Here is the input.
Amino acid sequence: MNPTLTTKASHTEFALESAAMESDLASRTVPGATGAEVWRKHVEQWANRGVLDAVYSRRPRKTVAKTKPRKLSDLERAKKLPPKVTTGIELVELGEKVWQDRSMLAKAVEMWGAGMSSGAVRQAQCSRIGWARRCKAQGHPWHQIFRCGLRFCPLCMSSVYESLFYEAVERLEHVASLLVPEWPIKGKCPVRVIAKIDFTIRNDGQMPSTEKVRWFNKAIRKFFVRLAKLNGWKKNEWGAAWCAEFGPGNTNLHAHAVFCGPWIQQKGREASALWSKVVGEYAILSIKAAKSFRHALRHAIKYPAASWKYFSASPERLAALEKAFYTVKRFHTIGAFYNSPTDPKVPPIILPPYDKCPTCGSQLVEIADPRWLTLNELMRMGSRDYRAYQREQRLLGNGPASSGTGPP
Here is the structure.
């Protein structure tokens, strides 16, 4: 074969692929519009809807404490109290002050318009401010990044999943080992199992409200109570935990659960029939054996781990998801898992305390005039991210960062 013809053919193929990619990109962009112009249009739309003029909304308290609130010190006040934001305009100014990503700031404004003011203020500053300290000996600056902790924040979802998973492992794994002493085992229909259960209901195409999410969680709790009553199970013989969730781009409310206890009969769809009776309509329930307790637990809280699925979601969609789960408990337990004490033999899976300098091992103290600093200010100080250094040391296998061994 002539090499010249082969080269020309490859060049032609490459040109066609480049042209196809350029046309695809052009179809997804606004011709003649810059990022500043698109952002200006968003701000105009919020102003026309009255979001920017909306004032700070406080969630009504169900119970009022009889004791007077303790007076905070200046340091505690600077650490715990958020900046004063009274209108949506001030929220936008706060996000631009800390150089927040425009998509995250847009989500914060949508949350502000939906009545979630405190969450909106946290979202506007997520991962853009930090709390700095210096070591006593040589003045090495270190800081911790602020995390909003919202359920559907793409910047926090993975860390929220990690803390939720290991906290559940600490509280429930030893209980699961008592409920199911041997797992996995060979054979069919074992006496005691570790299973993954999926609960679904009919999707009506509309975004469920907070009340419907609460009703859904109550229905799951009622299902397990009725199942235990029908089979004569005692409270200490079984345990279940679950999370309710949506998919990244749909309105399908469902839940994933981990179950440890006696065998559940589903060959003739008995469990599905009970679930349909509880919700008052035809509904599907799936039960599968799990490889281990941790495998089932990951399945129960898997969506917070998949933060990459939500990066393509619009700010309006993310705000709607936050609204649906606003003030709703994240992780539910029942049976032997409910209020189970932690196992003293298992050390808590937490990060080392923020009190020692990883470089020299001396004590970390507050800086003069302690406050939350923007990342720009922290970079000018030459400060390093304490948690990022800890993750780096764990990946390198050097153990906890507070050992004072010094950076590599």
